[in-house]
Structure formats: C-alpha cells, structure tokens
C-alpha cells in the first residue's frame, strides 16, 4: 500500500500540462489565432485610423455572443458579455500600428502605407506588437465564451485605438466608457516585451511605466552676420547652454533614489554657415513616475531656459517660450492586491521560471488612464516576453543586443506571446469572475 501511495502522489498533487483544460483549449485554437495574427500584422493602421482593424475585432466578438459597440472614442470597440450577477472585469488590447518601414523579412510583413498626422507619407508596421495583443484578446474572448458555466459577472473587452500617441484611452473615457457601459472594478492588460525571453511573464507592482511629456522650447536671440557675433545674441550658443544645464535637473535636483529622464531629441537652428539665426528650437521628451517629480522637472525646464537667457543678456521680450504639449501620457500604476494575486496565480500555473519580477521602465502606456479615471479600480498591465529563444541565446540574454519595441526589425515569437497571454488572461479572468 505504501508503495502504491508513493506511486500515486505525483498524480494526486500535480496536474499534467496535457490535462489542463484552458491550456489544451488555447493550444487547439492556435492555428486559427495565428491566421488572425498574420492578417493583423500584414494590415496595420495608424492611430485613430484603425477602421478595418476595429471591424475585424468587432466581428470576432459578435460571433461569440458579445454585445458590441463600435466607434467608441472614434475607432474603439467595446464588447460586453453579461453572465449573471457578479463583478465587472475589463480586458484591454490596443490596435494601432506605427509609422515604421518593416524590415523583419517575415513572409507576411506589412506593405501598408499611410499618412502621419502631419500629412507625411509613411510605411506602417506593428512594430510594438499590438497585433499580438489583439489576437490574444480574441483568444481570451473565445475561452471565456466557451466557459460561461465557470464564471459569473460581466466581462468587458476594450479594443483601444491610438495608444501610440497616448490619446486612445482618454478618447474612450471621454466618450462615456464608464457611463455607457458597465464600469469595471478590475482592468487587466498585457504588453509584449522585447527584453524578456518568449513565453516568460513579467510583473511589477506599483509604478510600472512612466509619465511621458513632450516639451518644445523656442530659444530666441538676435540674429546677424557670423563674422560679427558681438552684434548678436546667438540662440545656438544659448540653446546649447540650456541643453547642458537641463541635465542637472536629474543629476543634481532629483532625489538620487527617484528616477527621471530629460532627453533633448531635436535641436534645430540656422540655415547657412555665416548667418547667426534669430532662434533655435529644442524638442524634449521628459519621463518620470510620480506627479511631484513630473512637476519639478517641468518647472525646472522653464526656470533653466529663462535663467540661461537672462545670463546671456537676451532682452526681456525675447525670453524662451516653453510649451508642454497636450499629448501627455500619465504613469502606469499596478495596484495591490491585484498585482500580487496575479503573480501568485501565474506562478502556480506556469511555474516560477516563467514568472519574474520586472523593474519599472521609462516607456509610457495610456493604459494608466483606466485606473486614474477612478482610483477605486484595481489595475494591472503585465509583460509577456517575445524574444525568440535562438535570438535570446545568441545575444547571451543581453537585451541591448536585440531589436527593441518600435524597431523595424522587431519580430516577436508570436506563437509564444499569443499562447502565453491568452492562457494568462483567461486564467486571470476566471479567477476574477469566479463563481
């Protein structure tokens, strides 16, 4: 009898992967999901132009019995499935591609063309993996529709436009997302990751992604002949001083245990060798986590620009103009206890080697707005690694040697991302809406 019990213990206390119903169902659905993925990848659309993409998702959700509303926040889709009394859970995927020429060499690589908001012709690519996000949302919707006997409550799906310009979530919320549709107590999303091996899940509690501000600085001077600089107030020299001084905001004014980035991404001035221009233009990206740090940086940029201009003797009526653009994306905060609960759930399901703690990053995500619109909501966005094993091994696990998100070469292991994310999102939804 003792020998028999020892033989049966692994069977009694471990569920073989082959006998796991969600995983089995996802595996059986992968051929269909990959067909959808390849179509989405080959046919990306830019922010707020996701008309055909939205129609594809809406059709998939309708087939499953969801009540679907299109054109929410211009091109967004909201799908609702009510399944008796219980909590309301929202799952989100973003839809837009990027103005990037694809160079992955994939047989289904995008050849799509479009125009930027500035009217410039551009190739379009899903260089951030939103095609994997949408496909996994469809896969999760299929599983939840097929398993209605195992959950109770309301499941809401958000197919969100314009994440890449930080405007889609705000547009959906402004269009009545929390008043026209069931308001969630919990919102969950995921993002593929270019610095994590394929199929590995990363979770961060607290601040996970940054505030993102774009700041324009117009530095005014007094132009003139390059041979007679004494008759001018050179805006190029002044702008150079401002660029250098801005680095002290992080290096000398920020608490060393806090984090921030002030990057000057563009310096534009002049048109000829021997002419000192009237002005120079600086374009900045500013990253932070807390509202307090964000305000300190923005105030500091204005103060430094004006102070350097005064030191250079620029007239009062030609002080620098500092403009904080309205395309601000607020930092993303993963709440507790949801973050810890999902980490425990994913670790039990996938094993400790496939669930890791990840650091906060300076990238931005407007997923943050769903929580900020009502801080009583529990909110989590997690990572699903997409780096193919061969590429990861070749790079020795050094993410700096791999294509990043937004790279024309970013080609995630889509099978691993979609299968892992679909299983994880389904498991999270079942746990949140459990009877």
From TrEMBL:
InterPro entries given in the database record: Amidohydrolase, Bact_exopeptidase_dim_dom, Peptidase_M20, Peptidase_M20_dimer
Keyword Signal: yes
Residues annotated as domain Peptidase M20 dimerisation: 209-308
GO terms for biological process, alphabetical: diaminopimelate biosynthetic process
Signal peptide residues on this chain, from the entry's feature table: 1-19
Reported cofactor(s): Mn(2+)
Keywords: Hydrolase, Manganese, Metal-binding, Signal
Cofactor note: The Mn(2+) ion enhances activity.
The keyword Transport is assigned to this record: no
GO MF: metal ion binding; N-acetyldiaminopimelate deacetylase activity
Gene3D superfamilies found in the cross-reference section: 3.30.70.360, Zn peptidases
UniProt-annotated binding residues for Mn(2+): 128, 130, 164, 191, 406
Protein name: Amidohydrolase
Record organism: Sphingomonas cavernae
Taxonomic placement: Bacteria, Pseudomonadati, Pseudomonadota, Alphaproteobacteria, Sphingomonadales
